[in-house]
Amino acid sequence: MKISNRTSTTGRRRTTAAVALGAVLALTVTACGDDGSGAGGDKGAEGSGTGKIVFWDNNGGVRTDVWKEIIAAFEKEHPDIDVEYVGIAATEYQSKVDTAIQGGGLPDVGGVGAAMLAGFAAQDALEPLDERLAGSPLDGRLNKDMVESLKAAGGGDGTLYSVPTSANNGVLYYRTDLFDKAGLAEPTTWDAFYEAAGKLTRSGRNEFGYTIRGGAGSIAQALDAMYGQSGITSFWDEGREKTTVNDPRNVEALEKYAALYKKATPAADVNNDFTKMVAQWDSGTIGMVNHNLGSYQDHVKALGADKFRGIPQPTGASGKRVQVSNPVDGLGVFKSSKNKEAAWTFVEFALSRAQNSRFNESAGQVPSHTDAAKDEWISRAEPTKLAAQALNDGSTTIVQLPYYLPDWNTISKADNEPNFQKVLLGKMSAKAFLDTMAKQLDAAQAEWNEHKG
Amino acid sequence: MAQAAAVAKPPAPPRRRRASHAPRGLPYLLIGPALLLMLGFIAYPVLSVFYYSLQDYNPTKPWRNGYAGLGNFVRVFTEDPQFWDTLVFSAQWVFVEVGLQLLFGLALALIVNQTFVGRGIGRALVFSPWAVSGVLTSAIWVLLYNSQTGVSRYLADLGLGEYGTSWLSDPATVFPAAIVADLWRGVPFFAILLLADLQSVPKDLYEAAEVDGASRLQQFRHITLPHLKDAIILSTLLRAVWEFNNVDLLYTLTGGGPAGETTTLPLYIANTSVDAHDFGYASALTTVAFVILLFCSIAYLRLSKFGGEKK
């Protein structure tokens, strides 16, 4: 009886299986769906200057509290404008904005840092802000280098698409208690850095001199170490056609730096993104870590302010400090906004001295407002103070990374992060890695030059 | 004769009366919303991907966008070694995962199908990982594999292994480590499905087999397995497609690393579209993956004679 029932339901089972399988397979394809409807080109409107605007925070979670404070102050001063805050994790921000550009749903205003600016501008998603800034009380009050940096990152035509809020900078955090105990000198030079990395490592006791970033975001940190040691001060040759990343001095510097892996670092570092790297350092058994100003407060919470220092990157053999540029962060108004006037009012408020100071004190970063940069809190936040000094006193040469290249994110992430892991694991030479990256960069630069005419 | 035939003819079954009050279009009206949703959320995106697979489409380089013909497909098969590497790894991942999940799932289903004290709790424990979301599963295993807080740290404290290591960071151990994490989530799926089918096996078959002197192994081979055949085929097929498309766990655990060792084809597609913005090429990769899955699925169903007559 049972068998006969099964036989009679054969056709139904096949149909059910076909329907289930069809749906599952169809979802395979929909996973890469994209409607390409082009909301990025929407011209938007000035609006009434009142009503509701939507703000997307490009570092949601980490900066949520301070943005909510700023928004509360804004709404108190501008009761006719209502700001809806949407916090988006830094790692998700670009894909969220790209999706909204293509499919619709962009906010009125949002975080637009230098690293993402070229891509958004190329999609015609951002409102030019030069004229608005020229007619604003902020004109002349913002750090000129930061403004120029964002203009340069915006696609090469000198248009300002994002108004700077803050600058970040590479920092070498080191454990003062461990250094004192080992009798080591402050790691202000690369030689001192390598010496400390070796001497602080006792892997059998779970103590390591350094933690290297091998996972997401590894390329910028590796470039910082390379240019810092080699002393090369430009990313391109004089003709701006060939990159210097595979210069023999950079190759040598990378070989030395990558050799730290497993000798002075935990083996697990090869997969570490910044979250894991910072958490690992904060767990308390590692001497040094390279990150930027953004993690300062995390270290204070985990270790206390008296157990570590954050200093600018070490100086090279020539006694000069060379660093690669950290992306300047900023706020942009999206072209599709139907209420650009209110969106700009919010930008102006957020960049006013008081609010810019409030934001950067919380973030531990260098304020873009020149008056805010003189506020008293900066002298208390040592890494920020030292970073601001290093950026302004002429002691540091900044190698400008090509954020303007639409391919920059691809080259510095998807294309080469796995290869950097191969270098760490000894499966690829530093030279082969840098030659591959140089070839991609030269091709991207050539395409860009051709496009710009 | 004719009279006899008329007598022998069974009475015709009573004709079903149609629901006379229901309007003719009502069924279409009722399935309409579902149909519209399927068109909007499945048909349109699917066709959209097929369309973009024939285009150069990168929103950050609009000057290069345009019709590409079969160029993206030529690139997939002739210029992209990463496609072949990730396809081979995906196949390896699917075979090992589905095979082990079926094996352990079947074993657990057979165990919890027995009568024993605490069976309810046992069943709940077996099924509970399936109730945990993918994100939480990933978070649990990230912590377990963490070099400072995870298992390797405590083993190092005991003198087993070195400090600062993680099975996810070593090319020699990352594959089995990821397999174990996904097994934890996938085994209950098979256990649930197979247990449901096991409970419909008539007990008298086992009783008859026992009277005939059949051993437990013979009962399993000749009664249980044939009964489970369709459930096994369908569940392995669905699970294989899901495992092929698995992105969340591997992305969170390893990001496809170290050095691309755990990059599956869907993860590569995700990187190509989300990170590299190369939506045209990613669509071509997706189309190829779809065709491969479709072909393999049909072949599997045919070869396994799914739904066919039992001997």
UniProtKB/TrEMBL annotation, chain A:
<keyword id="KW-0472">Membrane</keyword>
<keyword id="KW-0564">Palmitate</keyword>
<dbReference type="InterPro" id="IPR050490">
    <property type="entry name" value="Bact_solute-bd_prot1"/>
</dbReference>
<feature type="signal peptide">
    <location>
        <begin position="1"/>
        <end position="31"/>
    </location>
</feature>
<dbReference type="Pfam" id="PF01547">
    <property type="entry name" value="SBP_bac_1"/>
</dbReference>
<dbReference type="InterPro" id="IPR006059">
    <property type="entry name" value="SBP"/>
</dbReference>
<protein>
    <submittedName>
        <fullName>Sugar ABC transporter substrate-binding protein</fullName>
    </submittedName>
</protein>
<keyword id="KW-0449">Lipoprotein</keyword>
<keyword id="KW-1003">Cell membrane</keyword>
<keyword id="KW-0732">Signal</keyword>
TrEMBL record, chain B:
<feature type="transmembrane region" description="Helical">
    <location>
        <begin position="124"/>
        <end position="144"/>
    </location>
</feature>
<protein>
    <submittedName>
        <fullName>Sugar ABC transporter permease</fullName>
    </submittedName>
</protein>
<keyword id="KW-0812">Transmembrane</keyword>
<keyword id="KW-0813">Transport</keyword>
<dbReference type="GO" id="GO:0055085">
    <property type="term" value="P:transmembrane transport"/>
</dbReference>
<dbReference type="GO" id="GO:0005886">
    <property type="term" value="C:plasma membrane"/>
</dbReference>
<feature type="transmembrane region" description="Helical">
    <location>
        <begin position="25"/>
        <end position="54"/>
    </location>
</feature>
<feature type="region of interest" description="Disordered">
    <location>
        <begin position="1"/>
        <end position="20"/>
    </location>
</feature>
<feature type="transmembrane region" description="Helical">
    <location>
        <begin position="279"/>
        <end position="301"/>
    </location>
</feature>
<dbReference type="InterPro" id="IPR000515">
    <property type="entry name" value="MetI-like"/>
</dbReference>
<comment type="similarity">
    <text>Belongs to the binding-protein-dependent transport system permease family.</text>
</comment>
<feature type="domain" description="ABC transmembrane type-1">
    <location>
        <begin position="87"/>
        <end position="300"/>
    </location>
</feature>
<dbReference type="Pfam" id="PF00528">
    <property type="entry name" value="BPD_transp_1"/>
</dbReference>
<dbReference type="InterPro" id="IPR035906">
    <property type="entry name" value="MetI-like_sf"/>
</dbReference>
<keyword id="KW-0472">Membrane</keyword>
<feature type="transmembrane region" description="Helical">
    <location>
        <begin position="93"/>
        <end position="112"/>
    </location>
</feature>
<keyword id="KW-1133">Transmembrane helix</keyword>
<keyword id="KW-1003">Cell membrane</keyword>
